[in-house]
Amino acid sequence: MKLIIGGAYQGKTEYAQKHYGELEVVNDFHLEVLEWVKEGVDPLSYVKDHLASYQGKVVISDDISCGVVPTCPMLRKWREAMGRTLTLLAKESDEVVRVFCGIGVKLK
Question: What is the pTM for the complete model shown?
Fold first, then answer.
């Protein structure tokens, strides 16, 4: 598994296509996590239970951990869930890349 994180509109998808074009891409992972939170599903448990389904793929996610902490309880829960699920995916990934302004920096 390859994990690509970064801010919105920073070139994550283009980076994935250029460097991992042959692999299946799970794009907008952060939006999947938001839907799970809205539905009352524990994202961390879900990802743990389905970890094998991410193997051999590129997971692309916005990093929503920066900036002002949301006042909305649901959005705070989403932010926490993102941190925990991305930590798990990073641990299980072969490579982790942060993309900023279209430039990928390999973290792992």
Answer: 0.93
Structural domain spans, the chain: 2-106
Do strands 57-62 and 24-26 pair parallel, antiparallel, or not at all (unpaired)? parallel
Q: What is the pLDDT of residues 25-67, one digit of tens each?
A: 999 999 999 999 999 999 999 999 999 999 999 999 999 988 8
Query: CB under 8 Å to 13, separation ≥6 — which residues?
Result: 25, 27, 60
Distance in angstroms (rounded) separating the CA atoms of residues 2 and 94: 6
What pLDDT is attached to residue 98?
98
Give ∠ CA 10-28-16 in degrees, rounded to 5: 55
Residue 12: exposure state from Cβ atoms within 10 A (0-12, 13-18, ≥19): buried
The CATH code for residues 2-106 is 3.40.50.300
